[in-house]
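Forwarding the complex inputs:
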Amino acid sequence: MGAQPLTFAISHHTTLRYSALVHGSYNEVRMHPRHRGGQRVHAFTLLSEPVAAPRSRIDFYGNIVHRVDVAAAHQVLRFTMQAVVSMTEPRARRPEPWQAVVLERDPNYEFALASPRVPLDAPTAALLQEWVGDDRSFDALVEVARRLPTEFRYIAGVTTVDSSIAELLDGGAGVCQDFTHLFCALARHAGWPARYVSGYLGPKPGEAEAVGESHAWAEVCGTDGRWVGLDPTEGLPVAGSHIRLAVGRDYGDVAPHRGLYFGSAGSAPPDVTVKVSRMSNDDSMSAHRDAPMERQQQQQQQQLSPRRSAG
Amino acid sequence: MIQTGDAVLPAAADECLDSEGRPRPPYERILGTLTNGDLGRLRDVQSSAAGWFAERDITFGAPSEGTAPIFPFDPVPRVLGASEWASLERGLAQRAAALDQFVADCYGAQRALRNGVVPARLVYSSTGYLRDVVGAAPPRATWCHVSGIDVVRIDGRFAVLEDNVRVPSGVAYALMSRAAMQEVVPEWLDGAGVRSIGDYPRRLLNILQRIAPRPWAAEIAVLTPGPYNAAYYEHAMLAQGLSAALVEGRDLWVQDDQVYRRDAEGGVVHVDVIYSRVNSEWVDPLVFRADSMLGAPGIIEAWRRGNVALANAPGTGVADDKAVYPYVPAMIRYFLGEEPLLDNVATYDLTAASHRSHVAASIDRIVFKPVDASGGYGIHFGRLMSAAEREKMLARVVAEPRAWLAQEEVQLSRAVCLGRDGGFEARCVDLRPFVLLDEQPWIVPGGLTRVAGSPDTLVVNSSQGGGSKDTWVLNH
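Prediction (whole assembly, two chains):
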């Protein structure tokens, strides 16, 4: 028997500001936590301001995507996601590496190939060789994840969402997105399917909540077809507080927001605030007593009666 | 040189003449006409046809200084006999059907990839493989409604040089070349017994109506990248032939997963079918290319939900990726259980090391093509490169094996053309037949014969200064 699941309340606010009024926008939002494996979604709402009715679909990687088309002119667009998620601590695994001929005919082969943000070139091949030599076992990947944050510095804001692996190698510093891209490149060079995970990090032991930005890490897949998470920013295998939002080949497949708008306005990088609060198991059973849920219910009512101004 | 009647025919014209210099049977009649007094007439035919094209603004190429160039036209027809056409037709139908099934499989069960028929790495790394299309079910389970399969004649046999199942262009030029000939020299056509090609727009319309969500009242739009596209004339002409609206991306919008356009009076019209001449990775900027201004955001979701039909379906580019081409014969065997009727030109997969070493060893006979280009651009002939250039080329191939394709250089057949000096000359030709796919494939009798720009040019492509000929398929 594994440990009791932990329950978290998540709120994720994204604010996009344009330099002038935009005349309508089309948005794709990947902010629905995955409901797979040890991670279960008990409640979810997505609100936008200006108000629009989101429509959902499931993408190629099994992520739930919401389309939010805003017809009204606006200069600020806000998305608020709130969810309650329970997490079971993942079992420790030590998956087996692939034989090339087997992997080539497996659906997960695609994650072992280069992708737009994860090129497989000589510098990363050389780095893998330097760090682990010819070892292609899972232990070698754990070593890569452990070593990565000791070789590169985490400096918030030093790179942007568009930065490349080359910039991390040249500059020696980056954020979780850069670390994860580099880790994926090294794992793929080693012949492992490796995918990019966007998500949130729950509160540290002993703390009630974690406030900050979203997080990213990687998962690798062995011959048993199961994905095992490794966090190359923390330098650790993932634990029960790594809450998964979306998976894909790289950041391009999982971006929490991508959109288009009409008009000549410029746009700034979005403001993102994420809060993950630990709920006691009792609270998760009667969620309506919890403060975040009350707010959620109020906003849901606003969504149902769009004439009331939202917020 | 071969003297026939009062004209000199070029001996290398193997499309038209046999090894002894006699006209091949399909050409007997027309060459007889041309070499017995009508040679002088040929210049008149050419200038009348050019005038006919100019009057109608029939252009090919992007406009420079305001006007696009008139489509260059050679007045000597390309003639195919009934039996050689019949066997070519069977091969084309087979190939188009296999390509269509391959596309369906890539976006469905991916059996061909699991079974190693086509290497999965080529599909997964193809820019034509659109992950947002996986799992979609287009109406009538057809993906490649229109394909243009380029064939060349090598040693007397037709072989496929390239498959085009995204937005093959050229059919309007075939139709217009025929219309010009019909206008200028109707007696040549009547005398020879040439099969009509005028049915094309009606056949295409039938397919577009059948895939519409409301087939009884299908509102069709032809989506063009705009007047700066080389084939804009064709888009406009097909829209007219289909009684459809010609639209650019900015004319369309999507609301609640339905596609609309505005009509000339400003009214709102629901669009049921889009015959798209925009590459599918540009159709929906929300899904594929945020930098695209050619499509409209939301079209793909509307299509996935069956609210609008797209022809060709999005994602067909996975089948005409040049790196996938070497595996088309294997697709035919796998999906249809038949032997391929048309050969491929010998082609090497540069992502395989053994193929690369063969290419390096026989570079004199190799042509390098970039997989992502079309229009005959970026092609390098091994035998024309200096030692330093060869080394550079091979280094590029090793660095980026997925970006290049290597083919054996082939000797294209030549056909009689009217030279600039008013006499005959032989120039390289290819043929782009057009296949329409519904329950049964239908192939335009003929297609677009493209002619090299001069007797010593080896690349045959309309974007490379060549021209075209009317293509005749004889009744008997």
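Helices of chain A lie at 100-103, 122-132, 138-151, 165-171, 176-189, 251-254, 281-285, 291-304.
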